[in-house]
Each structure stands twice: as C-alpha cells, then as structure tokens.
Records
---
Amino acid sequence: MKVAFITGVTGQDGAYLSEFLLKKGYQVHGLKRRASMFNTDRIDHLYQDPHIENRNFILHYGDMTDSTNLIRLIQEIQPDEIYNLAAMSHVQVSFEIPEYTGNADGLGTLRILDAVRLLGLEKKTRIYQASTSELYGKVQEVPQSETTPFYPRSPYAVAKMYAYWITVNYREAYGMYACNGILFNHESPIRGETFVTRKITRAASRIALGLQDKIYLGNLDAKRDWGHAKDYVRMMWMILQAEEAEDWVIATGKTTPVREFVRMAFAEVGVELEFKGEGVEEKGYVKACTNPEFQIEIGKEVLAVDPKYFRPTEVDLLIGDATKANTKLGWIPEFDLQDLVKDMMKNDVKLMQKDQFLKEGGYNTFNYFE
Ligand code: NDP
Ligand code: GDR
C-alpha cells in the first residue's frame, strides 16, 4: 500500500486529493491545524474512528511554521509521496499578513524539503509543491507556460516564488524527486467562500432566493483561467507518477473576465443581468428572470463595485498553456467553465435553500460580506 502525506488536507484541494488517493488504494495521512472549532467540513465524509484498526485516512495536528512537528510526522509516516498543499492561499489577505504568508508558504516548503533530506528519505519520498499561476503576475507573455518569466505581484506570490525555487534547488542539489505543479485557478462547490467564484455563486443563489439584496465585488475586468479542482488534483497525482521530476503548468487554456463569471452564475438561476456604468460606478441590474421559482424584481440593482476589494497590485490576465501536461502526461480536463459554474450553482442553491428554510423557521443565518 502506498502512503501519502497531504499538508492542507482540510482545504479544497486537500479534500479532493484525499478522496482521489483513497480510491487508488493509498493510505492517506493529513496535516490539520488545531482550531477552536472543528475545521474538517470538507473531509468529514472520509473521517475514520481512531479506535478502528487498519485505518487508511489518518489526521495529525501540525503547522507549516513548526519544523519539529513536520520532521517528527514525516519520520513517523515515512511517506512515499508528499503533497504540500498547505498555504495561506488568499492573495488579497497576503497584503495584510505578509510576514506570516512568507513563513507558512515560503519557509513552510523549505521545512518539508529539508525534513525529507534530514531523515535520509531523498530516494524514497516524492514531493509535489503547490505552485501557482500567480507567479506570472504582471503580464510578460500570453499564454503562460513553463518557460514564461515570473513577475509576482503580491506577498503571496513572492512567498510562492521562494517555494518554487527551493523545490527546484533541492531537486538539483540533492537529487530529490520534487516537482512544481504551476496550477492556474481551480474552483469547485467546496471552494473557500471568499474567493471570487464562490463568493459569486453563493450570492447569486442567495439573491435569487430573496436572502440577500446585492453582491459587492472589486475588479470585474480581471481575467482568469478557471478549471475544476477535480481535474487538477488528478494531475497532481499524475505529476508524481512521471518518470522524471519536472515542473508542469496545469490550465484550461481559456480565460474569462470576472464580470462574465457573474453573468454565467446568475444565468443558472434564470436571471439575466445588465451591466451599466464604468469602473467604481459600474452596477448590475436584473434585466429578466425566466425561472418562476425565483421571484426577483426586474430592474433591481444586485451588483455594485466596492474599491475595498481592489488589490494594491493586481494580476490582470492569466491564461495558461498546458501543452506539456497534455502531451507528455496525457492530462485532459473533463470539466469546462460552463460545467464548473453549473456544479457550483447547483450546490449553492441547495445550500441556500437550507438557509431559507431555517430563516422561515425563525432562525438566524449568516452571510459574511468578505
Ligand atoms: P485552501 O485555502 O482551500 O486550503 C489551504 C489549506 O492549507 C487548508 O487546509 C489550511 O488549513 C492549510 N493551511 C494554511 N496555513 C497553514 C499552516 N500554517 N499550517 C498548516 N496548514 C495550513 O487552498 P486550496 O485547496 O485552494 O489550494 C491548495 C494549495 O494550492 C495552496 O497552497 C494554494 O496556494 C495552491 N494553489 C491553489 C490554486 C487554486 O486555484 N485553488 C491555484 C494554484 C495554487 P485550514 O483549513 O485550517 O485553514
Ligand atoms: P486569485 O483568486 O487572486 O486569482 O487567487 P480570487 O478568486 O481571490 O481573485 C480572482 C480575481 O477576482 C478579482 N475580484 C475579486 N476577488 C475576490 N476574492 N473578491 C472579490 O470581491 C473580487 N472582485 C474581483 C480579484 O481582484 C482577482 O483578480 C487564487 C487563489 O486560489 C490562489 O491561492 C491561487 O494561487 C491563484 O488563484 C491561482
């Protein structure tokens, strides 16, 4: 039985990757931070009672900022594969907590690599590093591939740039099997609620159900290459099965503005939007509603721009060229953007119907405007 160690197991990708590896027959160990409440919603369906024998899904407390913890865990687990997914992953928040982001995302990666080296596991343990299209930052070239120069535009991206190069360095210096997956944005029904796609699908569902009046967003012109997380975790595994350790771009090759994602999400609940105005004055109004299930007033203002969501330095355009992964590893994504939006909206409408039921029963429900 192969043994995998996943940092960031409670996150979007950690949850999908755990499911994927368990289906492949792996024993999966996950690193989980101590929190004052359970923070395991995304992996609760995989949880196994610690009292049963021969478990194949095991959680360990730990933190990317704690070397001794990581060394001890890797020694105990003796993993065949490490997927280093843990990170403070929110670009805008990284401007507010830059030092912590550098520590967890940058030095955290070094701690993993060096633990493997110190323990003499260089020849046994393969390492996947969660690198990002944010490395490309300010546009140098489109589409972006493995050879495009980096120009990071946030403390998050700068920390991930250190992580990228320290991974390459340990591969070259110590002959370790360590790879970067340079993944472009990937989303899903379990995407964190403050990333733009999930913020939009939650809001569109709540607005259609009369639970919320409006969504406030930042830069509607930013363009992203959005894929489905399920396709991307499959590729993480494929990367570690390749004969040689290399770095890989994973993307759909198509780019879409945030505004268009908004339009597609509302269209899933039969709401046609009209955008008027420019820059911070831009607003979105209901032009038509074709779904009789949702009573939404024509002409209602449902979207406004709030400059608080603008970033000090923005990444305007991401579009990836995954030719290398397509041709050398045979990776072809199964979901396109329309499938992704459908999947996310289906899930959020269901979730918000639950909220609606609670509200009708006199209970409070919460919607954070982050
Ligand atoms: P999430 O934000 O959903 O998950 C991040 C995970 O990291 C969570 O499990 C979180 O724990 C954990 N974590 C954060 N800080 C620490 C720490 N100090 N110690 C231990 N664990 C920590 O991210 P995704 O699943 O979307 O992304 C996975 C990785 O891929 C990240 O490294 C991200 O930067 C990178 N990436 C993501 C892309 C995307 O589009 N999703 C694209 C390219 C790269 P907790 O649940 O306790 O907060
Ligand atoms: P990103 O994702 O920064 O690309 O990082 P995010 O969804 O946060 O932003 C995408 C684009 O949308 C614009 N935007 C808004 N973003 C947020 N979060 N909230 C808003 O209200 C809003 N309005 C407009 C942003 O300015 C940006 O241009 C994600 C993370 O998963 C990283 O960890 C990962 O490395 C990269 O994707 C690839």
---
Amino acid sequence: QTIRTVPTEPIEGQKPGTSGLRKKTPVFQQHHYLENFIQSIWTGIGGVEGKTLVLGGDGRHFNSQAAQVVLRMAAASGAKKVIVGKGALLSTPAASNLIRTRGADGGIVLSASHNPGGPEGDFGVKFNTANGGPAPESVTSKIFEATKTITEYHILESHDVGLRTEGSFTLAGMEVEVVDPVTDYAEMMAGIFDFDAIRALFKSGFRMRFDAMHAVTGPYASAILEGTLGAAPGTVINAIPLPDFGQGHPDPNPIWAKPLMDEMMGPNAPDFGAASDGDGDRNMIVGKGCYVTPSDSLAVLAANATLVPAYSDGLKGVARSMPTSRAVDRVADALDIDCYETPTGWKFFGNLLDVGRVTLCGEESAGTGSDHVREKDGLWAVLFWLNILAEKRQSVAELMAAHWREYGRNYYSRHDYEDVDSAAANELMDNLRGELPVLAGHSYGALKVRDADEFAYDDPVDGSRAEGQGLRIWFEGGDRAVLRLSGTGTSGATLRVYLEALETDPDKMDRDPQEALAPVISAVDEIAGIRKRTGRDAPDVIT
Ligand code: VG1
Ligand code: CO
C-alpha cells in the first residue's frame, strides 16, 4: 500500500456554514473536491497524526464512497485509529456520543442533515471536536483558511475496505474499528430515561407513529421503540435508510412530514407522533390533533425535566437560539434558573454545556438536546416526551393546554422563502439593517416598534464574539420578528422570518397561530418589504 501525494489547487467556496460544508452532491463528487476539504480539516486541526477519529454518516447518496476516501486520507496522514459505524452509518447524536465515550479526538459526520439527498440532492461534511460537538468558529475558520492555500493532499492507494461487519482491522498501520451504530446510543438512552415507565405506557395500549423519513434514525427507532420498549410492530415507518430518502425531504416539519401530520390530524390518529431528520438530530412532536412547535417542546421538556431520571435533580440552566421563542424563558423564570440566548447553530451551545452552565438547549428548527451529548438529538427528545407522558398519563393536547395556562402561550411560526435570488435577499437584509436605528416609535398597523437591532453574541465562557446573527424587531406588548439568511442551503438564498406573539389571556390559548401572528406578519412585511423584494406572495415553508 502506497501513500500518494496528489497536487491540487484551492477550490472556491469551501466555507463551512451553520453546520458543516454543504453542497449539491455533484459538486462534492467533482475532482479533488472532497479530498481538498478533508485535507483542509486535517490542516485546520493541526494534523491528524496519532489521533483517533469517529466516522459515520446518514446513508445518503455518496456516503459510502466518501467514507472510504476519509479512511484512506486518515491512514495516509498517520491517524492512529478510526471508529466507524457499520455500513458507514451513524446518526449525528450517536457520533457525538462515540466521540465522547471513546475519548476520540474528533469525528467526521457525512451528512447534509435535513436537506434532500440523492444524485441531484445535497451532500455535506461536518467536523466535530473532542467534546463531541460541532467545531466552533475558531476551528472552522482555520479549516476554511486551509482550503484557500492547499497545494496537495495525501491518500492511501487501496481497495475499498469492508464496513459491513463489526470488528477491527488495520489499514496501512491505522486501526479501523467497525461498530454497530445503534448499540452504544441505545445504552445511553436506557441510562437517561425510565424505560420501565415507557414500557408500561405502551403496554397500556398507548399507540405511536414514528416517521424515520427513510433516514438514519430508522434503525435506532426500530431497535429502541419496538425492540426494547415494546411499541407495536409497525410503529416506526419508513425505517430503512435510503440513499435518496425515498425521494423525500427528510426535514421533520408539518410540510415535509405531511403524511404523518395527516394521520395525526385524522380520525384514527394514534396518541403520539414523531419524526426525525436525515442525520437524526432533529425531532418533530405531534399529539392526536395537536402539533407542538419546537419552541414549545423545549419549554415543556424544561418544565417537566425532573420526571426523567437523568434530570431528577433539576436543571442547571437552559439555552435557546435567539430566534427560538421565549416560551422556555418563562419556564426558566419560574424555576429560577439561567436562560442563555445564543446564535443559530448547535456549536454555540458547546461551551455552556461543557462548563455546566446549562443542561437543556434547543432551537426553533426542531432541535432539542441536553448535556448527554454535544449535538441536538431527535430520538432523545422523543423519548423525553414519552417519559413525560408515561408519568403524567395525559394527552399531548391536555399537557399543552395545562402548560399554556400556567406559563402563557408564545404563539410562534417561521416563514421560509426558499431559493430566493441571492442579490435580492442580501439587499433586503442590507436595507433593513440600515433602517433598524430609526424604526423605534413607528407604527405598522396595530403594532408599534419598541426597539430593533442586529444580534451579536459574546460567549460568556471563552469570550469569543459572533456578529451579524440576525435582525430583530420588538414591538410594544412583546411581539417580535427576526430575520436572517440560512447558512445551510445549497442554492440561492433562504430567507427565514421568525414570528412570535405572547398571549397570557387564558381565554385566548386556542387560536390558529397564523391568525394570532397576523399583525406581526403584516408589520414585518411592511417594514422589510418581503413580498416586494422577494417577488413572492407567500412563504414556501411555514413551520
Ligand atoms: C438551520 C437551522 C438551525 C440548525 C441548522 C442545522 O440553519 O435554522 O437552527 O442548527 O439548520 O440543523 P440555517 O442556517 O439554515 O438557518 V441540521 O439538522 O440541518 O444539522
Ligand atoms: Co440534522
């Protein structure tokens, strides 16, 4: 086996976004594209010599081939060991767990997460550090710098190695350990939740549907829900990971998980429904006739955390991304614990979790997690809900009603305008940014602007500062609108408009969110000229 040194040139645009580098699959398949980026990761982390890495992906098209390239390049650069999920599969939270429990120096997750896959879909590469979390900006910026100066990469000449069976072998002196992707993760879940209580819940006739969306969570959900917890066979649907996710869009929201939504809103709905995304870190929660917004879900988990064995001593604190609704803030207030507000993207929670300032965190984009790993964790959130329901023996709708009665309801919705012309989207943001200082005091329909700014975050642990993290407009009475451009898309720009209105009147807890938010929706359109500038009448996706 010889190590080849291959001359190459920098390729433009290899800048990691909100969550790793994401591009159209054919872009990743271009000559040297993946190799350049992997070599730049090695450079960005100060070399991979003597290091142990975890490797796996969500099974999308190009996953297997890319995994072989990573193995050959890790061996060529002197890595000591790579722990890889069987079939090159690992959900993002399972990878995070393995990095932590095996004391690895980091890991590579091959995924474009909730983006569609397939030959014309998206592919992605994420690097996680030794704490199991997404690389912070200090690391991704070094990786990006390396992509701009790269002149050669190193790769082993070898046949593809077999990843179909568990066990260890060596590849040019590097140990490769193939592990079952589910075992360690399932064990960790059993250590967090009251599996006996959940088993009893299913035994009592509680019915559930889990839509794995043909993505990586299928094997995890089948093993844990149906295998260990006794949910009825057929509870988990679309359970086999497919390279193109069955032509679907593995994003668990009411639009892309519509078949599940339809079932849950229909006459024969089971008691509880859930879905997860491509790489298994997102979750959607829906009860019989009752969709739970991710922001509310986070608040409910925080309010009921002590029902779960692992959190029975209470929470150290909570954190949410800035655009996430302030429902969890109200719970934190009541519990008298700290609530942190961070920029969008899981990497910003890492430091707070590492130093023990927070136990739970979440994002409005269907991400929820805790200090058990350093990624958001879809199935964990579903098990958390099951544990709560097993203790409370209430329906999701009853639980939500009680929650809102106690804390008030933060009506919430996100409107996405996808594949907008990039120049038009940037112009919209630039223009609004320019107007922020003069908005206060002006009225738009029934709403008056109280304040407006651009969010910047000073990390209280390492002092790093992240600027340009979203434009915020507050209205008198507490309503809020936030605008930002997505950092995970692969074509054009995606404008995200986050809308929130607090309601504390107990008689107004059952409104249609779009209706409750109508004044904010029209005010922000008037302020930012969304319809005019994007040329769209309505959002593409409403969550
Ligand atoms: C989106 C979400 C963000 C999430 C990120 C990665 O980012 O808004 O909350 O952390 O996706 O999620 P953006 O920049 O497109 O808004 V995942 O499940 O795609 O890794
Ligand atoms: Co994801």
---
Amino acid sequence: MRRRAKTPRRKDADVKVDMTVNGTPESHEVEARTLLVNYLRDTLGLTGTNIGCDTTSCGACTVLLNGQSVKSCTVLAAQAAGDDVTTIEGLAHEDGRMHPVQQAFQECHGLQCGYCTPGMVMAITSLLSENPEPTEEEVRVGLEGNFCRCTGYHNIVASALMASRVPEMHQ
Ligand code: FES
Ligand code: FES
C-alpha cells in the first residue's frame, strides 16, 4: 500500500508583540499561538516563571499582568501586547533587597523544592495588593489556584501573613 505523503504542518503566522517586562520595553516577533509563559521563558530567558502542568491548574506560571496575578500559560503573548508584566525576576528592589513576600518566604521557610515558589510569591503579592490585611482563611482561599507538592501550605500561608504585616506592603 502506498503511503500518503505527510501534509507539512502549517506554521502559525508571526505577530509583533510589544510589552514591558520588569520595567524593560520588549518587542519581538512570535508565533501567534505563543503562550506568555513560553515567551517569557524562551524568548526573554526569564526562567523563574515555571511550568508545572498543562491544564492551567497548578499556578507555577503565575506572573503579574498590570499588577494582577494571572497564570501565564492561559494567556497568549499577543494578548499581553501593550501590557506591563512582572515576573519573579522583577520583584526585588533595585538595590538587591528582597521584596517583603520573598523575605517572608525565607524567614518562614515557605519553600522546600522551590518549584511552586515563584508562582506563590507572585500570587501572594497580588493578593496583598487587593487585600492588605487578609485573614488566614482569606489567604488559603486566595491561593487555591496555586499548588505546592512539598510544604503542606502551612509555611506558605504563614509567609503571606508575615508579609502582610510589613509596613512597605501598606504604602
Ligand atoms: Fe500554568 Fe500550571 S503551568 S497553571
Ligand atoms: Fe516544592 Fe512547593 S516547595 S512544590
């Protein structure tokens, strides 16, 4: 039997995407189907944003889009055109001091393997910007979209509550 020649896969058209990432203007041609997480990791080399699932459920890929947390595997890079993106690499202060949420993770031992940590830190940063004095219950509910397979969440929640008490988070 003669084999049918394979139809070559059509390459998606490239689109030009302009956005600001961690305060730096970026402009690149990417395939239209490129996810924001892949753009950040593969095009910009910002590999602090992790990929932990292919079902948009784990939250390892969480970044801030115009200050609000989003799972960057659920957003096309093209959809973020013109937007302001912050990744874990852009969270610390310019002088190198850690952001209060990062500091709290260190002090409360909020991580073990660290895989979920960038997403957790970004999600908590967004949560505290919307609700600066959350209860423990509100933190737990706010982190429902972020999975940790190591810590049992106790120290992550403690980190969020510690960060919420830092004056800088209330400015
Ligand atoms: Fe985005 Fe899991 S990699 S939610
Ligand atoms: Fe390992 Fe959260 S610290 S997955």
